[in-house]
Amino acid sequence: MSSNTLKLLSLVISAFAIVKIAMAGDPDILTDYIVPQGVSAIDGNFFTYTSFRPIVLGTPQPTAFKVTKASMVEFPALNGQSVSYAALQFPGGSVNPPHTHPRSAELLLVCQGSLQVGFVDTTNKLYTQKLQEGDMFIFPKGLVHFQYNADPKTSALAISAFGSANAGTVSIPSTLFNTSIDDNVLALSFKTDIATIQSLKKNFAA
Ligand SMILES: *[C@@H]1O[C@H](CO)[C@@H](O)[C@H](O)[C@H]1NC(C)=O
């Protein structure tokens, strides 16, 4: 093979690799929708989810940060449709701690109040923004991000859309300090001592 042929071949191969990456997401289904096993007759109710009603009405207001999901777990008709929502309620001064969604980007819309948001990309660069009512922000797939209602007096409400029926959430604080990762591993990783790690873990104990 000439070196030009080789170059062309490697271009084609890398183009295929890029297409494969771009298509990584929920699997396509070969039916219009998926009816769960054991469910025999469905009607419009199967495609309807009403658990966001009280959130949109604003009653009751939670006293701590609260996520209400509409993923395929809560709303089975989403199975196979590659979409889902989450409603995020922030009392004044509350935070949604740093976390990732392994299977989807997140498109957040601020419906009430204001939010400070940010994510860190794979070069460790932080991107932040102050969002007002009506603003949207996109958190790229898999990257660590957070949202914070810096206003101590006004609550905030955001609705997030996901390109997966089951985006998944990995909370960074819980993953590190509310599992049984060895104290020594964490102390070395955070360049600190075991006592500091144990004190962080204590705050998560059930
Ligand atoms: C820590 O994990 C336990 C067991 O999974 C859970 O019950 C508890 O709520 C978690 N604590 C926090 C603060 O997330």
TrEMBL record:
Query: What domain of life?
Result: Eukaryota
Q: What is the name of the protein in this document?
A: Uncharacterized protein
Organism, as annotated = Bauhinia variegata
Taxonomic placement? Eukaryota, Viridiplantae, Streptophyta, Embryophyta, Tracheophyta
